[in-house]
Design goal:
Layout: H1 7-17, E1 22-25, H2 32-40, E2 44-47, H3 51-65, E3 69-73, H4 76-91, E4 96-102, H5 105-108, H6 120-124, E5 130-133, H7 140-152, E6 158-164, H8 165-169, H9 195-207, E7 211-215, H10 217-221, H11 225-235, E8 239-241, H12 261-267, E9 270-274, E10 293-298, E11 312-315, H13 318-332, H14 338-360, H15 368-381, E12 386-390, H16 393-401, E13 410-412, H17 422-433, E14 437-442, H18 443-449, H19 452-458, E15 463-469, H20 498-503, E16 507-511, H21 514-527, E17 531-536
Parallel strand pairs: 1-2, 1-3, 3-4, 4-6, 5-6, 7-8, 7-9, 9-10, 10-11, 12-13, 12-14, 14-15, 15-17, 16-17
Bound molecules: adenosine-5'-diphosphate, ligand TZD and magnesium ion (MG).
Residues 391-394, 417-420, 442-445, 468, 470, 472-474, 542, 546 line the site of ligand TZD.
Domain Thiamine pyrophosphate enzyme N-terminal TPP-binding: 6-121
GO molecular function, one term: magnesium ion binding
Domain Thiamine pyrophosphate enzyme central: 198-325
Length: 559
């Protein structure tokens, strides 16, 4: 290539050659023209109101497609706003590349004081899987290839790509040929498990009387549903899906024992972790039968023995693991015993009956379960719909109530339990899939990124946001005994979040009963238009920290 090109053009060229088509971002100095240029070159650019939402949209894109999502930010403050979401994506193993414009090195490195000047490259490093800076335009193609590899191979995660303003605008010397690498679709550099590990895992399974599978979002990220399904259909081993693994197999599958969680944990004698870390979400394994033997499939060898001894590690890419494991368990004739399955089924039935009662018992003001029922029914009737959720009680109750029927159709607060991911995830999901999205939001959770309703309306996305408005973080009824200031957890229970949608031309509903919610939800959903439903929930409902109140330090405060 000898004609004159800028760094920006080389970047866009490399992104496009690698099949990356969408950019989520917020523009300003020094990336505005870069976004224009990308848009005019045939890429799609989606402008957000805050960078964390843009990076969340890109992370959702990575989670759904397996290709890294792309986000674009301005320097220092835009970069820092985006960095939190890059760190979250990295925690959640979602492949995403955050590209930020930055100041020129000679100003930053001598601390000479620049407009939005910050040593972004070095600051980003501890918060993402890999960080790269591009100092010469001819390296753009190489940088993009490195960023894609880092984001998608091994344990996927967030990558930071630092673009100093002078590299973006630099014109390539016409005598230099730029590097460019195209990563082939079928070239994911997949790690295979050792044969001996597979044989040992099969031996452990052979001895099991009460085996259990825990499916984690690693299986969703790996797009491993075919291998997982074959394994479960062959062995009949019951499974419990973590929240973002719901739908790998339909939640109403016979083998799903989500409704018998405590029993399955306390009784299982072999537990197989399939792309699920033994972290706080699984109580570090402390609620498992203490004599249970553990098998763990994970692409990251560091994860093995993180909290409990793993008897049989299966380190490798999940699809490669199932390619080996499935014929091996077939050959060994591994099958879960009917007694074990019957015991779990009995517990499941008992808990289903309890749940049914909660869902249908009328109460006024409306409670969480009554409000979840119409959403549950809508998703059952429309299983292609994606569900995004965040909050505390709203998140926890919704996770148990709303069944998911297809892989990767639920995105939520994830490993850190973060608020403020919902609207970004919903936008990225609607754009990448073209499907409808129902966002199930706590009123506090919605407040973190609620202004993205403007983005949703501007882009005419089919996103229905249901806000569980109980007027608080966890609960809206608390009074501050020490004075007239609202209590720390108090928000405005009378707030009309639906009006925000109206302000930007979306549909708006204020509902107080499950019947009103059902009508509004179906109308909004069927219209395919952006909508906010303000669902008024009894402010006296809602447990402190939802299902994880035990993690709060005890200070003896009465509330
Ligand atoms: P959950 O929160 O659903 O329990 P985690 O996020 O804790 O799941 O765990 C996901 C795990 O999946 C991580 O340890 C990650 O290394 C692993 N993982 C991600 N992609 C793959 C893959 N392609 N093959 C195997 N393991 C994977
Ligand atoms: N800030 C961030 C970024 N993430 C967080 N998880 C929190 C603060 C703390 N937090 C929770 O862990 S849940 C939650 C907060 C503020 C909101 C819960 O209230 P909600 O849901 O209205 O969203 P419910 O239904 O009232 O429980
Ligand atoms: Mg609330």
């Amino acid at each position: 290539m000898t004609q004159q090109v800028t760094g920006a053009e080389l970047l866009i060229d490399a992104l496009k050659k690698n099949g990356l088509k969408n950019i989520y971002g917020v523009v300003g100095i020094p990336v505005t023209d870069l976004a224009r240029m990308a848009q005019r070159s045939g890429m799609r650019y989606f402008g957000f109101r805050r960078e964390d939402s843009a990076v969340n949209a890109a992370a959702a894109s990575g989670f759904l497609t397996g290709k890294p999502g792309l986000a674009l930010t301005v320097s220092a403050p835009g970069f820092l706003n985006g960095l939190v979401a890059l760190a979250e994506a990295t925690k959640n193993c979602m492949p995403v590349i955050m590209i930020s414009g930055s100041s020129e090195r000679h100003i930053i490195d001598l601390n000479r004081g620049d407009y939005e000047g910050l040593d972004q490259y070095n600051i980003a490093k501890p918060f993402c899987k890999a960080a790269y800076r591009v100092d010469r335009p001819e390296d753009m193609g190489l940088a993009v290839a490195r960023a894609i590899r880092s984001a998608t191979t091994g344990r996927p995660g967030g990558v930071y790509l630092d673009l100093p303003a002078d590299t973006i605008g630099a014109i390539l010397d016409e005598n230099i040929d730029p590097e460019s690498t195209i990563i082939k679709e079928d070239d994911p550099a997949k790690m295979r498990p050792a044969k001996a590990e597979v044989a040992h895992a099969v031996d452990v399974l052979k001895q099991a009387k009460k085996p259990l599978i825990i499916l984690g979002k690693g299986a969703s990220i790996a797009h491993a549903e075919d291998g997982v399904r074959e394994f479960i259909e062959t062995t009949k081993i019951p499974y419990l899906p973590m929240s973002m693994a719901k739908g790998l197999l339909p939640d109403d599958s016979e083998a799903c024992v989500a409704a018998a969680r405590s029993l399955s944990f306390s009784e299982a004698d072999v537990i197989m972790l399939v792309g699920a870390r033994l972290n706080w979400m699984l109580s570090h394994g402390n609620k498992f039968n203490p004599n249970a033997k553990l098998i763990q499939i994970d692409v990251d060898p560091d994860e093995i023995d993180s909290n409990k001894k793993i008897e049989a590690p299966l380190v490798g890419d999940m699809n490669a693991v199932f390619e080996e494991l499935n014929p091996a368990v077939k050959k060994a004739g591994i099958k879960a015993s009917q007694d074990w399955l019957d015991a779990l089924k009995a517990k499941k039935d008992e808990n289903f009956a309890k749940m049914q009662k909660r869902l249908t018992t009328p109460r006024s003001p409306m409670g969480y379960y009554g409000a979840m029922r119409p959403i549950k029914e809508l998703i059952r009737k429309n299983p292609d719909t994606y569900v995004v959720s965040e909050g505390a009680n709203t998140l926890d109750i919704g996770r148990n109530v709303i069944d998911i029927f297809k892989p990767r159709h639920r995105l939520d607060s994830g490993t850190w339990g973060v608020m403020g991911v919902g609207l970004g995830y919903a936008i990225g999901t609607a754009i990448e899939t073209g499907e409808k999205v129902v966002c199930v939001e706590g009123d506090s959770a919605f407040g973190f990124d609620g202004m993205e309703i403007e983005t949703i309306c501007r882009l005419h996305l089919p996103i229905t946001i249901v806000i569980f408005n109980n007027g608080g973080i966890y609960n809206g009824a608390e009074k501050n005994p020490a004075g007239s200031d609202p209590a720390p957890i108090t928000l405005d229970a009378k707030g009309r979040y639906d009006k925000l949608s109206e302000a930007f031309g979306g549909l708006a509903y204020d509902v107080k009963t499950p019947e009103e919610l059902d009508k509004a939800l179906n109308e909004a959903y069927n219209s395919g238009k952006p909508a906010i439903i303000n669902a008024v929930i009894d402010p006296a409902l809602g447990k402190e920290s939802g299902h994880i109140g035990n993690l709060n330090p005890k200070l003896g405060i009465k509330h």
